[in-house]
Design goal:
Helix content is about 30%, strand content about 25%. The protein is built from two helices and eight strands. α1 runs antiparallel to α2. Bound molecules: copper (II) ion (CU). The site of copper (II) ion has 7 residues, from loops.
């Protein structure tokens, strides 16, 4: 009985020490999801010239915008030509505002902006357009890329594997000792 308890206690001790070593690392796992980034973008729209990040760089097509999936874009929107525009996330890139496509309210001031927030949950290559004048006159590329995976750190997995093996071996040894334990001969 003494050897059985000893082996069991040793296995338990090794197991618990190993687990206590691994546990703090498990909390800060590198596989934790990426936090969304806030992306502020200012756009000036013009019916005859397209879009620009500022009044002096308006072009058709406008400047490309690239974000990562999950990013929250806050557009600050001005009308460089004082015409009425809106901003549409043209998810099917047909250069028209379709039902269900995210869009801002209308705006028509070169000095007073409106804001429009879009969470880039759809990965792919799209257009941003003016829904009133269409992409033919006012469009730009919007690229939403999936986040790149962080480098994989296998240390935790290896340590966890070693813990499992140690615990199994310890338990096996304890059981083997229990089986081998000779029965005491009956007293005469
Ligand atoms: Cu417009």
């Amino acid at each position: 009985m003494a050897s059985l308890s000893k082996a069991f206690v040793v296995a338990l001790l090794i197991g618990s020490i190993a687990v206590s070593l691994v546990a703090p690392g498990a909390v800060a796992s590198p596989t934790s999801p990426r936090t969304a980034k806030a992306v502020p973008i200012t756009l000036y729209g013009s019916q005859s010239n397209g879009w620009g990040f500022d009044l002096n760089s308006i072009s058709q097509p406008g400047p490309p915008i690239a974000v990562t999936t999950g990013d929250v874009i806050t557009f600050t929107l001005f009308a460089a030509d004082s015409q009425t525009h809106n901003l549409v996330i043209d998810l099917n890139s047909n250069q028209l505002q379709d039902t269900g496509e995210p869009h801002s309210d209308t705006f028509s001031s070169p000095t007073t902006s409106i804001t429009f927030q879009y969470t880039a949950n759809v990965t792919g290559t799209f257009l941003y357009i003016c829904g009133l004048h269409g992409g033919a006159l006012m469009r730009g590329a919007l690229t939403v890329s999936a986040p790149t995976a962080p480098p994989t750190d296998n240390t935790l997995l290896i340590v966890a594997g070693v813990v499992v093996v140690v615990v199994i071996v310890g338990a096996g040894a304890a059981m083997a000792m229990r089986r081998k334990k000779p029965k005491q001969p009956p007293n005469p």
